Amino acid sequence: MSVEVVPLGREEEDHAVLPFRLRDIRPVIAFSEKYPFAKPLDVIQSELKFQSKLAAREWNSEYWVTLAIGLAGFLLGAVSTELLSGGDAQKVAWDGLAAVRGVAFFQMLLSLICWSIFTMQIWRLFPVIRIHAISLLVLWNLTMVSQLFFHLNQIDFPSGATLGDMMLGTLILLIVLFFIYNFGKAVIETRNLHVEEYHVHEDVRLMEMEMAEHSLRGWGFVLGTWFILILISSWAGAHFVSERGGDRIGSLSVHIVAGVLSMPLYMGIIWYPQRMLGTGTQVTTKAAINAEREIGGVLAAELHQESQCPECEKPMNIYRDANGVVMVPCPSAGCSNSNAVGTECASCSTLSPSRHDCPHCGINAPVLDFLSDMEAW
Q1: Is 363 exposed, middle or buried (0-12, 13-18, 19+ CB in 10 A)?
Q2: Among 12, 129, 214, 241, which is most exposed with the fewest C-beta within 10 angstroms?
Q3: How does pLDDT run across 129-140, given as a tens digit for each residue?
Q4: How far is CA 13 from the centre of its chain?
Q5: Structural domain includes residue 2
Q6: What's residue 1's pLDDT?
Q7: Nearest 10 degrees: Cα torsion 144, 147, 149, 151
């Protein structure tokens, strides 16, 4: 099966057009050939390789310049002479900023400018996920704040730390984890809706292939790795500044290395969902979609569209919801749920088939045949 190759300079590229497919990518080291239980490692390897090749091919100079600006902002702030010297411990807040002089002030100003440009570029380059992208930057800063609270009363944290000294830092870290989890959940649920809407097919096997092509295991691994890196970087940075005049260059080195590695991962985290889903998608959770419908006054009954048997023309309980997903009654006796084609029932775990039996005349036909021409778009 041939795949169309699209020029790099083409904007508004169809998200379904790819130079290669995920199913054609092989892992770097096939662990499952010797250890069958290691199959998930091979899957993650293949997806990471796929994402890396796709990014290397499709990231133009604007993406790389944005990444360079972000790295410059991070490095200018991390190797500030004000931090290395320890600064004036008697001056804080605006007085502390006003006390910065010479090269240190110029360096701090350049760092702020770089971070501002980087944030604006992220907002412009990733319209589908821009709110989540900015939220991740805020969570990055909150992670640093949590580590500062951890080191507030114990400069050698975690050594010698007590539960009382960890309460505020732990609370902030739990908030960070909650929002990162919510972000991952939003991307996964948006992916599911995208596949059900744009890749629906009466053959369940084809839908399973499309779901595999849209797999997010590798992306989830990158998201988890990014969080671990910013946690390590934040801890090392706070560890370095916690002891005034201390010899903790090793901590500063860890802070810089982990921070530099986390920057390209951050851009990959926000780029890949947009590339997969296309620019016409809004990344959100099902709960948020349902809440938006309720606020807008959309009743569940209004989402049910007319359908009828193609043979006896009796009305059927088959419909498309507001997202275009085909919903069919659960085939299990005694279950009244309606589920998307090709998915398991939430109540009885019965798979919803792509064909349906008319309870009136007994005809067995594809689900799409029960929908009107207007509904079978």
Answers
A1: middle
A2: 12
A3: 889 999 999 999
A4: 21
A5: no
A6: 34
A7: -130
Distance CA 255, CA 249 (A): 10
Residues 109-148: tens digit of each pLDDT: 899 999 999 999 999 999 888 899 999 999 999 999 999 8
Domain boundary pick from 298, 316, 337? 298
In 199-248, which residue ranges form alpha helices assigned H by DSSP?
Answer: 204-213, 217-242
Q: Which two three-digit tokens encode residue 197?
A: 């809407």
Residue 230 lies in a domain: yes
Looking at the whole model, is its pTM more than 0.90?
no
List CB contacts of 281: < 8 A, sequence separation 6 or more.
128, 190, 194, 274
Which DSSP symbol is given to 344?
A: B
Buried b (16+ CB within 10 A) or exposed e, 322-352: eeebbbbbbbeeebeebbbbbbebeeeeeeb
Domain residues for the domain of 364 are: 302-370
Pick the last residue of a domain from 267, 298, 329: 298
Please indicate, yes or no, whether residues 265 and 322 belong to a single structural domain of this protein.
Answer: no
What is the overall mean pLDDT for the chain? Answer: 78
Q: Residues 269, 336: one domain?
A: no
> 356: part of which helix (H) or strand (E)?
strand 355-357
On whether the CB atoms of residues 340 and 326 are closer than 8 A, the answer is yes
Same domain, 313 and 291: no
For 94, residues 6+ apart whose C-beta sits below 8 A from its C-beta are: none
Task: Establish if 294 belongs to a structural domain.
Answer: yes
Residues 158 and 294 in one domain: yes
Asked whether residue 45 is domain-assigned, the answer is no
Contact between 260 and 252 (Cβ < 8 Å): no
pLDDT digits (tens, 9 = 90+) for 213-222: 778 899 999 9
Question: In whole angstroms, how far apart are CA 280 and each of 15, 55, 198, 357?
Answer: 10, 20, 12, 36
